[in-house]
Design a protein that fits this description.
Layout (H helix, E strand, L loop, with lengths): L13 E9 L6 E8 L1 H4 L4 E8 L15 E2 L10 E2 L7 E6 L6 E6 L5 E7 L13 E9 L21 E4 L3 E2 L5 E2 L17 E2 L10 E5 L7
Antiparallel strand pairs: 1-2, 1-9, 2-3, 3-5, 4-8, 6-7, 7-8, 10-14, 11-12, 13-14
Length: 219
Amino acid sequence: MDVYDFPNLRKGESIAAQIWVSDADKKNQVISGWEVDPEQYGDSKTHFYVDWTTDLKDGCRNLGCLGFVPVNIATITPGDTLEPSTGKISLKIFKSKEDGDWWLHYGHDINNLNPVGYWPKSLLPNMPDHAGNIVWGGTAGSYNGQVSPPMGNGQWPRSNSAASFQNVQYVDFNGQGYDPPGYSLHAIETHRKCYQTGVFQLRVQGNMFHYGGPGGCTS
């Protein structure tokens, strides 16, 4: 996913790009990506983050509670700042065949990924074998009544320079990536006047799509 910075974001505004992995009912969820959230971090820098929930009530972001377990050899820790020069980050979330836990790997391209940590299988009883739902995309929000900020880099996905997700893959039981079947993919747009998603493109050089928009919604 492309990484951007928004140094002028105000408290109450937030922008993120992430991957959600959940059961079919979306009660058990694990999430990772980047976000800008002055209310959460006390600044308007871009942060790498993780999140999880078991019933849409408990759980927490980053290391705010017992849940996600970081590994000592990780090159990044949830909550760390990402510089705009990072350009892109690559994430892989998968259920390990060896220990049954849900692992997160991070890097700057799909051929250079290293473990960040894992969500223990005991946290996610609704995903004992596999995920039922996977989402790649962006979010943007503000206090009700405030004008919402941009999503992605603020450009509509009709532009090739808009924010994008690239090398989009599913992961099989052996941890290997494969192309998602076209019939399994669906676009979700909750505020189409402010944000949209582009057409998913199956490409030899990496499956991808653009997303985003200038914002401006007030509800």
